[in-house]
Each structure stands twice: as structure tokens, then as C-alpha cells.
Design goal:
This protein folds into 3 domains: about 70 residues, no CATH class; about 260 residues, Alpha-Beta Complex (2-enoyl-CoA Hydratase, Chain A, domain 1), CATH 3.90.226; about 90 residues, Roll (Pdz3 Domain). The protein is built from 13 helices and 21 strands. Helix 8 packs parallel to helix 9 and helix 9 packs parallel to helix 10.
Length: about 475
């Protein structure tokens, strides 16, 4: 029995040397200090490392032989690896072969599940954001919700991967999730049917006949292509009527770093987009914009909220620091760390936090978030009845009443153009009732366009003789 423990300790030592061999020559330490045929003595730190690995082997053997239920060695090792990584920070974890495959599928823009981005906070699973048009989104799950139970089983004591695994399952099957929501007196139960989540990461449309609206729901491998297409489509549709863009990053949980850089580059002519800084001072990487603003220099309003995290914060921070866009909404999530996926033997991988990222001004938003330039809380717009009823023109005998009335041209309801403008105005009014933040963004863009137009028209020109 003791020999098994010793052998396992040795295997774990060799494995540890292989995994961390990217950063340290510890795996070859004995070779490097060999003098003749006699190995040099280990340092005190190395001796302590061997003692700790020996302790791990002892505990492993005790669990596998005496735990109340039989547990496979594979499960014990996976749990040990995952425990080591998740104890570092909420975003580091071990991915077995299935999890690694699922992650690769997700970054390609298609995966199975409920459609929510989650993290772990205070022992509960916290919803970072639901993904648009997914079962969780349609059921009413919101950013900031805490998932307290899954099919009646408390999530207390589960790690994040266990909770995610329980939420995943066969397409068409259902799961009951219990949610604690701020402002709700009682826990909320949602029964959600699992489905294949096909993420269209970029959606666009024209608002009111003069503003381009681009929503990015996640940063996967298709995001840059989607943004470029959206910009082209909007410019073709609106032409010279285009006044600017609303870039909606609300409830965007993030994704691929290179896609965030590419999207930022689409709106910037030059300058730093983001820098990533690792453990060592020399581990600094800076990514800069290339010439060419695909938006044509038009004004941009960026919508953010507490569900805007990671890659979406990189885009928002770059546009804000370069004064290229105005941020409107509420403070972002505050995930300013970079995870590297490192394949390991056995077809698995580890997701390891390897760097923090910094906005062009050198600011880390880790656990702080990005503050919007204009704070606009979500609200519902309602028209107050009975106001603004009387005007001077309503008074009997008012001066110029008849003359001014003639200045109002009659509206031909049969005119297709007039009908189109009326329909657009009605749609925008309906959107304002549903999305107050978007309505304020549209007002801001049109105000900027109006001001710039008048400023350029009225500004006197001077000539040098």
C-alpha cells in the first residue's frame, strides 16, 4: 500500500513538472544540478514541494480506500485539479475532454444548453447575462439573478462546473431553476426546456430612418465579420441620411479577445486598443488599431450595463478612452482578466487566468467596471394624460391664428412615403416605451448631428492673404 502512495506521489511530481514546464525549469532541476554521478541536494522550497505532493498522495489513497462510496481514480484526480484551479479565481478551471469540446463548440457560435453566461459569487451561481433569443432569455432570466437551486437541489456546495453540467443536458428535456432576484420577495421558479443554442452574435437594423443600430450579443469567431457586414448594410440602406450608430453591448458576456480587438479596430483609425499584462513585467502585449474607420467617422453611442463583461468591456473602454464613442447606460460588470486555454494530456485542458487587461489609458477595470459617460438607468416611459392641452392658437380671436394655420401642409395619407415616415415614427415611439436607454441614445445621436450641422453652417470662414 505504501509503495502505491510513493509511486503516485512520484507520478504527480512528474505531472506537475510537465504542466508548469511552460513557466519554470523545475521539472529538470535535478538534471541541472548533477555533479558527476551524485545529484546535488534539493533546496528547502523543493523539499517542501515534495512533502506537499506526498501529503496529496496520502489523502488520495485514504479517500479511494475508505470513502463511504466507491469513487474512480479519474474522478478524484479531475476534482483535485478543478479544486486547485477554481480556488485561484472564479474564471480558472479544469476542462475534461467533454468540457473542452463543449467550449470549442461554443466559441464557434453553437452549443447546447439554456443560453446563460454564469459565474460563482457567495456560493451561488450568478447570472452574468442571458443570451438573446435563447430558452433562458425567453423564460425571463435576467442579468444579476442568483440561481439558488437546480431541480430542487441547492447549488450551495457545488462548484461552477458542477452547476453548469447540471444545467446542460439532452435537447428537449427541461430543468427547473430557482432564482433569487433583487426586489422579489419570494424565490422565482423557471421551468426551461433545453435547446441547441445558435448564437447570431451580431444583429443590426435601422432606427427611425437615420440611425444604424448594431447589437453584439457575444464575441465568437463570427463577430468581426458580422459587424463589418452590419456597417456595410446600414450605409447602403441609409446613404447620406445616416447620422450615426448605436453600438449595443448590454448583457454581452464577452468571448474571444481577438474578436474584441477586431471590432474596436473597425471604429478606430489609430492608437492602442488594449494591453494585456501577465505575471512578469516583460509579459506585456499591446494591440493597436490599423488605419481605416469603417464607420466613416460617424458619431457612436455605446450602450453598456451590468451584464457587459470581458470582451465587451475592452471595446467600450477603447472607444471611451479614444473619445470615439459616448458610453451610455450603467456601470459594466468589471471582468478585467484574460484566460488562456492550455491543452493537457488526456484531451482535456485548463482554463487559466494568465493576465489582466488594461484600457488604452492604462486603467484596469478588474472588479471595478467601466463607468458610463452618461448614466441612464432602465426605465419605463409613460405618457401623462391631460397635459399640454392649450396653446395661444386655441384662444378665440388670437392674432395670426388663421395665417399660421395655412402654413401647415395637409398630409396625404395615400402617399407611400408619408405612410412610411408615419410607420417609422410609430415604431420608434413603441421602442422608446420598451427600451428607455436606447431611446436616450437615439436622442443623443440626433442632437449631436443637429449641433454639428448648425455649427459648421454658422462658423465663419477666414482667409489668409
Amino acid at each position: 500500500m505504501r509503495s502505491l502512495v510513493i509511486c503516485f506521489s512520484l507520478l504527480m511530481t512528474l505531472a506537475a513538472g510537465y504542466v508548469i514546464g511552460y513557466a519554470t525549469p523545475f521539472a529538470h532541476a535535478q538534471e541541472e544540478r548533477t555533479v558527476g554521478n551524485a545529484p546535488a541536494a534539493l533546496t528547502e522550497d523543493e523539499n517542501d514541494t515534495y512533502r506537499q505532493l506526498g501529503l496529496f498522495g496520502d489523502v488520495f489513497e485514504r479517500v479511494r480506500s475508505q470513502y463511504v462510496d466507491e469513487v474512480t481514480d479519474k474522478d478524484l484526480v479531475e476534482h483535485a485539479l478543478n479544486g486547485m484551479l477554481t480556488s485561484l479565481d472564479p474564471h480558472s478551471s479544469y476542462l475534461n475532454e467533454k468540457d473542452f469540446s463543449d467550449m470549442q463548440v461554443q466559441t464557434r457560435g453553437e452549443f447546447g444548453g439554456l443560453g446563460i453566461e454564469v459565474t460563482m459569487e457567495s456560493g451561488f451561481v450568478k447570472v452574468v447575462s442571458p443570451i438573446d433569443d435563447t430558452p433562458a432569455y425567453k423564460a425571463g432570466v435576467k442579468a444579476g439573478d442568483f440561481i439558488t437551486a437546480l431541480d430542487g437541489e441547492s447549488v450551495m456546495g457545488m462548484n461552477l462546473n458542477d452547476a453548469v453540467d447540471k444545467m446542460r443536458g439532452k435537447v428537449g428535456t427541461s430543468i427547473k431553476i430557482t432564482i433569487s432576484r433583487e426586489g422579489a420577495e419570494e424565490p422565482l421558479d423557471f421551468v426551461i426546456k433545453r435547446d441547441i443554442i445558435k448564437v447570431q452574435s451580431v444583429k443590426s437594423r435601422v432606427e427611425g430612418g437615420d440611425v444604424g443600430y448594431i447589437r453584439i450579443t457575444a464575441f465568437n469567431q463570427n463577430t468581426q465579420e458580422g459587424v463589418n457586414k452590419a456597417l456595410t448594410d446600414i450605409q447602403v440602406e441609409l446613404g447620406p441620411k445616416l447620422k450615426g450608430y448605436v453600438l449595443d453591448l448590454r448583457n454581452n458576456p464577452g468571448g474571444l479577445l481577438d474578436q474584441a480587438i477586431a471590432v474596436s479596430d473597425a471604429f478606430l483609425e489609430k492608437g492602442e486598443i488594449v494591453s494585456t499584462r501577465g505575471r512578469n513585467p516583460q509579459d506585456i502585449k499591446r494591440d493597436n488599431a490599423t488605419p481605416g474607420d469603417l464607420s466613416g467617422g460617424k458619431p457612436i453611442v455605446v450602450l453598456i450595463n451590468g451584464g457587459s463583461a470581458s470582451a465587451s468591456e475592452i471595446v467600450a473602454g477603447a472607444l471611451q478612452d479614444h473619445k470615439r464613442g459616448i458610453l451610455l447606460g450603467t456601470k459594466s460588470f468589471g471582468k478585467g482578466s484574460v484566460q488562456t486555454i492550455i491543452p493537457v494530456p488526456g484531451n482535456g485542458a485548463m482554463r487559466l487566468t494568465t493576465a489582466r487587461y488594461y484600457t488604452p489609458s492604462g486603467t484596469s477595470i478588474q472588479a471595478k467596471g467601466i463607468e458610463p459617460d452618461i448614466l441612464v438607468e432602465p426605465a419605463k416611459v409613460e405618457q401623462i394624460e391631460g397635459t399640454d392641452r392649450f396653446h395661444e392658437s386655441d384662444l378665440k380671436g388670437a392674432l395670426d391664428k388663421e395665417k399660421n394655420a395655412l402654413k401647415k401642409p395637409p398630409v396625404d395619407k395615400k402617399d407611400p412615403k408619408a405612410k412610411e415616415e408615419t410607420d417609422a415614427s410609430k415604431k420608434e415611439a413603441d421602442d422608446a416605451k420598451k427600451d428607455y436607454q436606447l431611446s436616450r441614445a437615439l436622442d443623443l445621436l440626433r442632437g449631436l448631428s443637429l449641433y454639428e450641422g448648425r455649427y459648421h453652417e454658422e462658423k465663419p470662414t477666414t482667409k489668409m492673404n
